Prior knowledge:
Layout: H1 4-7, E1 12-13, H2 15-21, H3 24-36, H4 42-58, E2 63-67, E3 79-81, E4 83-85, E5 91-93, H5 97-101, E6 102-103, E7 123-127, E8 133-136, E9 139-148, H6 157-177, E10 185-199, H7 200-204, H8 207-212, H9 237-252, E11 257-262, E12 268-273, E13 276-277, H10 278-298, E14 301-304, E15 318-326, H11 339-358, H12 360-366, H13 370-373, E16 388-389, H14 392-403, H15 429-432, E17 440-442, E18 447-449, H16 459-482, H17 486-500, H18 513-522, H19 530-534, H20 540-548, H21 554-607, H22 613-641, H23 647-673, H24 686-690
Parallel strand pairs: 2-9, 16-17
Antiparallel strand pairs: 1-8, 2-3, 4-5, 6-7, 7-9, 8-9, 10-12, 10-13, 10-14, 10-15, 11-12, 15-18, 17-18
Helix pairs in contact: 6-16, 9-10, 11-16, 11-17, 12-16, 16-17, 21-22, 21-23, 22-23
The structure holds adenosine-5'-diphosphate and magnesium ion (MG).
Amino acid sequence: MTNISEVFASMVFDDRVMRQVLPKAVYESLKKTRLEAKSLDSDVADVVATAMKDWAIGKGATHFTHWFQPMTGITAEKHDSFISFDKNGQVLTEFSGKELIKGEPDASSFPSGGLRATFEARGYTAWDPTSYAFIKDNTLCIPTAFCSYTGQILDKKTPLLRSMDALSDEAVRTLRLFGKEVKRVNATIGAEQEYFLIDKADYQKRLDLKVTGRTVLGAPASKGQEMEDHYFGSIKPRVKAFMEDLDEELWKLGVSAKTEHNEVAPCQHEMAPIFDNANRATDANQLAMEMMKKVAERHGFACLLHEKPFDGINGSGKHNNWALSTDRGENLLDPGSTPKDNAQFLLFLTAIIKAVDDYQDLLRISVASAGNDHRLGANEAPPAIVSIFVGEDLDEVISSIIDEKESGRKAKGASILDIGTGVLPKLAKDTTDRNRTSPFAFTGNKFEFRMPGSSFNIACTNVMLNTAVADSLAVFCDELEKASDFNSALKVLVKRELAAHRRILFNGNGYSKEWEEEAARRGLSNYKTTPDAVVHYADEKNVALFARHHVYTREEVVSRMEIGLDEYQKIIHIEANAMLEMLKRQIIPACIRYSDSLAQGVSTKVSLGLEARGEKELVRKITALVDSLLEEVDKLDLLNQKELDDVYASARFCANSIVGQMAACRRISDTLETMVDKTCWPVPTYSDILFY
Length: 692
Ligand code: ADP
Ligand code: MG
């Protein structure tokens, strides 16, 4: 049995280690930097670097790297060893404050969306002292931000840190209205991570899985998830061994893996950590995804993080649990039990409702990808429409505030809530946790945003959320700070804003057709595909929002929009390539061989005077399907080769033409799969893969 307290964070240069190894003054200065997100004194850096190096070498590290999150969504590292020589040629280990604080990776091949010409390949990585350094594979990894020579940001961490600062400033300001002095308010995140584990041998045999992470072909298995027997079902010993190993690896890195269980679909599982501030939670989730893949290898598995690896069964998401916490540990989304706390809660709640309504497009954009297009709106995932579920109790409260009268359902105990004097009815956890179809649900003391895809870096979603909420709070503070009577101004504001943004609240079934129609009547946006959504990134109101809070410049927004579209069109082309290769070189030849052998058998039988009616019919059917498949494949080939002028046109063309043509090819191929002798089928089927 693992001793968790011994293992946990044993590979992390965390507060405990710092207190031990750093001189007191240096420790205090660094701690201040960390807690208040202040910049670091330069003379402190050298001391920290040496202590960090000695600690790392003591743990067996030989190299160090600046660990950063470029726009590819994965993390990047370039390893340098600690080795250097003194003037007598003796080997030394060295690591200076300069090396800790700043790195200069050759950045030319990371996407920048036109921000940094390739010839000007210099990029800088800068230490983020608010996230802990850690040792992975004998390498000291230093979490860093990544920007271009001219200071434009090229990564996902920098905007996240900026959005956290903006949110903190406005939340601190808001709390002052309630007579509370705090230094910092952090967004806290717990990211529940879904994934699939399949046998590595099956994975190796399918080109689509290897190059796209999902199956682009495949008929349904005879059993899917209809029995609902996998969810929280008993875990296979082999999977259990994987989970134990994963937990231990994550614990060493200070990632607080807490729950591991099966999910709805066969072979689908989930890992949830204990929440942390948005920055560290993001780093932790990146590490979790990396370790899942690595540990899977050790156990003969492939870990699929794709949003929709298999058609017809659930895809994987990542639930982004989000709340606000002060440096004194108060959760601002906890309704509290005094009138004053309730009023404060209602103001934050109103700010969030306004933010989600005003910037529903940004939230949708933050979860847009080729993979997630299969998931959003499919029957297991929230629709592409953003709406908020607050639960029955809170809904009553909101209605009574807006309508200023007792609501019809008085029997349930709801009454007029006089903000600032009345006390909220106790919120029952089960009434807030019931709606699994809502994309953005209040779950007692946090919101759960369920649209992000399983492979996403959660930074982008939280940049949108933090910045939008910061903006609502700023607008509210501007008004309330001027008021002569705070309580009555607060009432007026909360009532007015809740009424103005009521349309975003929806407690019904988010999967239903009726909701789509109702949402259209309410004027909510419903962007079905990635290009539909992403082209709104640089809408004037969004550019203005990011500029107001110093999160992105206009150029940075445009570059992110172009990267998003470019990535989308590249993925669709790769998927089409993989499909074409499998169809042309594996599936169609196998079908032809099979129908040839059937035909030969039929002619032998006919020569013996047998009728072989059914077999003849089978040959005829298979031959006809192969003919139409060949036709559809030709069409796909042509579409896939079409060159378009820019990423906008190309992404649209992918969504509107290529995706549909891929579906046409797949339909025929999947039908053939159900007719052809299994021993002739050239790739593992869903039954093979999902029921190993
Ligand atoms: P479930 O959603 O399955 O009911 P939990 O309520 O236990 O599960 O929480 C799911 C995730 O939400 C966990 O990662 C947990 O750490 C996180 N979480 C709990 N409280 C907060 C909070 N205040 N801020 C952010 N995340 C939180
Ligand atoms: Mg959850």
